[in-house]
Design brief:
Shape of chain B: globular
Oligomer: heterodimer
Structural class of chain B: alpha/beta
CATH class of chain A: Alpha Beta
Number of helices of chain A: 6
Low-confidence stretches of chain B: none
Number of domains of chain A: 1
Largest interface: A-B, 30 and 28 residues
Distance between the termini of chain B: 27 Å
Shape of chain A: globular
Largest sheet of chain B: 5 strands, parallel
Number of strands of chain A: 3
CATH topology of chain A: Sufe protein. Chain: A
Helix content of chain A: 40-55%
Radius of gyration of chain B: 18 Å
Order of helices and strands of chain B: EHEHEHHEHEHHEHEHEHEH
Helix content of chain B: 25-40%
């Protein structure tokens, strides 16, 4: 079903939306995701700690559950870190309901198409890379 | 020692609240997070950003003098403006901006003690309203080369056994971490620290609420590691921002006359062919 370069359908739409925006609008879109960051669901237990990143990076926590064969991710990110909240929110929207195989098939650099590196600098995309690595590890665990 | 050596460089949140409409004062927010300013900032504050505003777009360096003049002009900062820096993460990036403004000779620089988090925790107002000031004609001076160290200065420092302060986290110092996980582009080929450097993580200089520790506590912290005012000291971290925080503490809060920030820091040293490196607990 999934070829090696495909993204889950909703994530593909999100990436394309960013791709066609001009620089300033990209930041506005990311900020919108941060503003609409969903609350952590009450029925889930305290999420596992995401790997600790000393000093610089935001403490990010993640939990996931499987419903009807699809993965649903939930994040906890501090309000004072809107950039990372934006990443986490767009990943939740883009991935939720995807099969583990679809998550694992996402190219590690899929987000470069969004062009945020031109307005945020490449270093600021590390949070996105870290979140992708983490959701993939969770998806891989589901297939074991 | 009961007072900071140069208390005039610190203002508190109440002082800022009293000067929101003072045309002589320009508030400058400088954050680690690229979008935090846009979610709301202190009324009247302008934004600078370490990556996209203060660094040179092509070379590995910060702004040239001419670019710095253009930046100040665009932010409505005149030569005689009182510039007050604040930001997230205990003023980490705010103090980097303070250091850069000193490098190009801006006279009246202050830091809001406690930074953005303290302002927010006190329930003070934020606004997301965009704003712009009329451009100024700004003339930079300097550069004040005495506050910046280059790799050759560091090599000389190391060979003459003068003090170096490594302000990174302990695992970065020992070499256990080659780069911060998830930050491969801020990495280095080798892990560890500059031989002879003492480890005093920058965040040890601040309290829970983000304000600086007392003069006595700061003096004890640095002197316990042999970092004393009679010596010429160089501080470094990974990319030179955390070490500007320690530079500020040593120079302005403790009054050490000779302190430099090595802004090339570990991302330069840990990549330099042949540069001496020490691993483990060190000095």
């Amino acid at each position: 079903m999934t070829d090696s370069n495909s993204l889950p359908a909703r994530l593909e739409v999100i990436v394309s939306d960013f791709e066609v925006c001009e620089g300033r609008e990209k930041l506005e879109m990311l900020l919108d995701y941060a503003r609409n960051f969903p609350a952590f669901p009450t029925h889930l237990q305290r999420p596992d700690e995401m790997e600790e990143v000393p000093e610089c990076m935001t403490p990010v926590q993640m939990a996931a559950e499987v419903k009807n064969g699809g993965l649903y991710y939930y994040f906890v990110v501090p309000e004072e870190s809107p950039t990372v909240r934006g990443y986490a929110a767009l990943m939740m929207e883009g991935l939720n309901g995807s099969a583990p195989e679809q998550v694992l098939a996402i190219p590690a650099d899929f987000y470069l198409r969004m062009g945020l590196q031109h307005v945020l600098t490449a270093q600021r995309l590390n949070g996105m890379a870290a979140i992708l690595a983490h959701v993939k590890r969770r998806a891989a665990a589901e297939l074991k | 020692m009961t007072a900071y050596a140069h208390p005039e460089v610190l203002v508190d949140t109440e002082w800022v609240a009293q000067h929101l409409n003072d045309p002589q004062v320009r508030l400058v927010e400088s954050d680690e997070d690229a979008l935090l300013y846009e979610t709301g900032h202190i009324p009247g504050a302008v934004k600078v950003d370490w990556f996209t505003t203060l660094q040179h777009p092509v070379r590995r360096d910060f702004l040239t003098k001419e670019e710095f003049e253009a930046l100040c002009s665009s932010l409505g900062i005149a030569n005689d403006t009182t510039v007050v820096f604040y930001g997230d993460k205990s003023n980490w990036f705010a103090v980097y901006a303070f250091w850069l403004f000193e490098y190009y000779g801006h006279q009246d620089r202050r830091v809001m003690n406690g930074g953005r988090a303290k302002w927010v925790s006190e329930g003070r107002m934020l606004t997301a309203t965009p704003l712009a000031y009329p451009p100024t004609t700004y003339h930079a001076t300097g550069p004040a080369k005495g506050i910046r160290a280059f790799r050759d200065d560091v090599m000389h420092h190391l060979e003459s056994r003068q003090p170096l302060v490594d302000v990174r986290s302990t695992k970065e110092y020992t070499g256990e971490l080659l780069h911060m996980p998830g930050y491969p582009q801020e990495g280095a080929q080798r892990g560890g620290h500059i031989p002879g450097a003492v480890s005093i993580p920058w965040s040890q200089a601040v309290q829970e609420d983000g304000t600086f520790k007392s003069p006595a506590a700061l003096r004890d912290l640095y002197q316990a590691h042999g970092i004393t005012p009679d010596k010429d000291t160089i501080a470094y971290c990974r990319i030179g921002e955390r070490s500007s925080h320690t530079w500020f503490v040593l120079k302005y809060l403790l009054g050490y006359p000779r302190v430099r920030n090595y802004d090339g820091s570990w991302t330069e040293w840990g990549n330099l062919v042949g540069a001496p490196i020490e691993k483990g607990e060190g000095a």
